[in-house]
Write a structure and sequence with these properties.
126 residues; Immunoglobulin-like; four-stranded antiparallel β-sheet; 1 helix
Length: 126
């Protein structure tokens, strides 16, 4: 009967030692603790960018106005899909919208317009 309490204590001690060794490894693997033991800094939030575009379709003509209220330039491009199968869909030339500026994009189909949309991309550095 004397061996049971001693065995219980040694099992508890070895379990605590294993837990003490595994917890830091688990925290490191989960990303909660950095290499120096400090919490990782939060990821930087992206700077707001991009133009706000308003597109209107009237019969066979498409007009889009894009305004850029942000401090970085934006590059916009108007895409027009025509309703008739024989009418050629069009992609306008990309235009750079400088900060605080508004640009007008226009396109047309021979007959009806099925849909029109504007895509954005990063403006090339000058």
């Amino acid at each position: 009967m004397r061996r049971t309490p001693r065995r219980t204590r040694s099992l508890l001690a070895s379990g605590a030692a294993v837990a003490a060794l595994l917890v830091p490894a688990g925290l490191y693997a989960a990303g909660h603790v950095g290499a120096a033991g400090a919490a990782a800094p939060p990821a930087p939030s992206p700077e707001p960018a991009g133009s706000e575009c308003r597109t209107s379709i009237e019969s066979s003509r498409v007009v889009a106005y894009c305004h850029n209220p942000y401090p970085s330039a934006d590059r916009v491009q108007l895409h027009t899909e025509c309703a008739r199968w024989w009418d050629v869909d069009a992609d306008a030339e990309p235009v750079t919208v400088k900060p605080g500026s508004t640009v007008r994009l226009a396109d047309r189909c021979w007959k009806e317009v099925a849909s029109a949309w504007v895509t954005h991309s990063a403006a090339p550095r000058e």
